[in-house]
Amino acid sequence: MLAEDWLERSQPGYRELAQGERSAVAGFSIIWSVFEAAALSGSGSVRSISQFIDGNREALVDFTPLQAPLDYFQDRYVEEGNINFRFDHLNFRRNDNRELVESVLLGRNDDNAEKVKALLIIVYRLRNNLFHGLKWAYEMRDQQANFEHGILVMTNVLDCCRR
């Protein structure tokens, strides 16, 4: 495969990635593209995510399919009841609604639609960090589960909102 050959030859750390890590990155990239086209009219942003979720609140009454990703991100980004250093690596920008994400991760906001927004904002930050090269700063280490849970969030939201 052309891409694999080039990445192995030229990108530090890529050769050391396990097949599962490579698959998670590739799958996340493809699913993001599908999600952005289907849910966000091709214009991914925190604002378009919020608008999409607000327009589909009635479809989000059952949070069960998204509980595992929420649990994962809480375990990853919260320690001893506080947001941890990993959370800062999401590189929130001014308009990314960091406050909502923090309130959901800390268990202070239990509204299903707001929890879905927060999960999708995390996914959006993972997407930006991947597509803008920040994930390569540490050679993609410790990212497989992030991308796998991101895929779960996007696919479950699409499945839920298409019914």
Strand percentage lies at: under 5%
Uncertain runs are none
* Shape descriptor: globular
Instruction: Outline the biggest β-sheet.
Output: 2 strands, antiparallel
How many helices? The count is 8
Order of neighbouring strands in the sheet with most strands: 1-2
pLDDT averaged over residues: 92
**Helix-strand pattern, N to C?**
HHHHEEHHHH
Task: Estimate the helix proportion, in percent.
Answer: 55-70%
What does this protein structure show overall?
The protein is an all-alpha fold and 163 residues long. Helices cover 63% and strands 2% of the residues. It has eight helices and two strands. The chain has helices at 2-10, 19-39, 46-54, 64-77, 85-88, 98-105, 112-131, 144-161; strands spanning 78-79, 82-83. A two-stranded antiparallel sheet has the order 1-2. The radius of gyration is 16 Å and the shape is globular. The protein starts with a helix and ends with a helix. The mean pLDDT is 92.
